[in-house]
Amino acid sequence: MQRRHLLAAAAAASLAAPAIARAQGFDRPLRIIVPNAPGGTSDILARLIAVPLGKVAGQNVVVENRTGAGGNIGADHVAKSAPDGTTMLLLDVSVLATNPFLFSRLPFDVEKDLATVTMLIYAPYILAVKNALPVQDAAGLVAYARANPGRLNAANSGTGTLTHLVAVGLGGAWGTEMTHVPYRGGAPALLAVASGEADLTMAGATQSMPYATGGQMRGVAVSGPRRLPNLPNLPTFREMGWPHADAGTWQGVLVQGGTPPAVVARLEAALREVMQEPAIRQRVAELGGELRTEGAAAFRTQLRADTESLGKVIRDHNIRLDQ
Asked: Is the four-CA dihedral 183, 110, 114, 224 of positive or negative sign?
């Protein structure tokens, strides 16, 4: 129900946008490739901005979900697309930081074959448990995990994803272990907790906020620099002294690596304009996110830093996806 509500809200925002004006330089429709399943944060965000972006760019914008291989199928499709800026990749950029270490060989080179355009939003993680779990807060979760080593089923959005890696780090910091259960994306992991199939999960606030505020699961903590206004009683990871305090979903847009800088700059400006629209800003804020449209250079710098730090976690725990 919550997923349908989110997608309906995104569609309503799109339909409310003014009619598309075809004037600004692209000679064919634009595509946003989302490399994971419908209902996740990237998918929600892509559908929220599609029509407003089309209005600004002067072309229709179509969202396509191309899933599989930990996000590599969608990313490779963009890496091998025409270098004209009309095929965009929208994803949680941790995928691009971790996959070079999770796979022995990628069909594309992140540095050479993909050009950063801009980050769009940052949303902290909400760590939440199923309602039936006898845990009321963050301290209670740690105590329960220590008293029941290996019994907690931690649902994640896939082996090697950031939700998996952060949960591994948390278990280590708590001095215990959890059973990590991969799902095909964040949306199925959230549904698993909401139904009682799994004990806990974490996901970007843009995706998980409705579940936590709607009573379908119990939030216990949030990552990021501050508490969430819609969930003010949940402490931050930093307050609890947990690692990965600034983990979260960083959603960004990339295009084929040979795309001319002028085209990248045009897309960057168009996306920044779209994200500043009051309806978009309000919806992102309602879902616990914040705008991050610093542009291509800042995006590339952060991607390189994340690649170094997350690569270390993967190497230290010997996590692979193609063994």
From this structure: positive
